[in-house]
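Retro notes (design track)

What went well: tokenization of the new backbones is finally stable.
What didn't: we kept losing track of which sequence belonged to which structure.
Fix going forward: every design gets posted as structure first, then sequence, in one message. First example under the new rule, 173 residues:
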């Protein structure tokens, strides 16, 4: 039994290390036609997603349909939608970062077709594409560098003063 488990682990571990978590499910499903307007879009991955670098766009006939920020719950990311979505095609563009630090991006579409539902009025709203570049750590602000130098200079000055006092006390009568 132990040997069997060991062999299984040896086979399974490299396969797991080879790639990060995959998207395993979306709600609504890709290509779905819904007769009830959804109140959220949810992605489910095979591994955890971190709360950093999350970007969601849900673009419908009336422009952006998202409301509020996406929420991460371990392997699931939920993006709330505005109420009363009009009928038409919606495109979801997403960008997440897996817990191994790798970014992941994708898109899918669904159709809202509520019987007797409203349609968009006016011309479609242009939406800029999401920024899928990996967030880079920002450079150290000058303020903190200057503060660091000042602190070091003060510490050295204090050390010198203490050292002089000790020496003068030692040389005293
Ligand atoms: Cu990865």
């Amino acid at each position: 039994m132990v040997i069997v488990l060991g062999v299984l682990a040896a086979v399974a571990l490299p396969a797991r290390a080879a790639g990060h978590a995959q998207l395993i499910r979306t709600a609504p499903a890709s290509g779905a036609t819904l007769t009830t307007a959804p109140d959220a879009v949810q992605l489910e991955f095979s591994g955890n997603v971190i709360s950093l670098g999350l970007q969601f766009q849900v673009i419908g006939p009336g422009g952006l349909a998202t409301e509020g920020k996406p929420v991460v719950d371990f392997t699931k990311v939920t993006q709330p939608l505005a109420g009363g979505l009009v009928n038409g095609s919606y495109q979801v563009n997403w960008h997440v970062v897996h817990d191994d630090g790798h970014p992941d991006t994708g898109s899918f579409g669904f159709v809202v077709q509520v019987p007797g539902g409203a349609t968009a009025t006016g011309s479609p709203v242009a939406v800029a594409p999401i920024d899928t570049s990996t967030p880079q750590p920002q450079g150290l602000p000058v303020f903190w560098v200057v503060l660091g130098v000042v602190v070091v200079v003060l510490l050295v000055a204090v050390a010198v003063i203490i050292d002089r006092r000790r020496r003068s006390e030692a040389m005293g009568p």
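Added context from the reviewer: The chain has two helices and nine strands.
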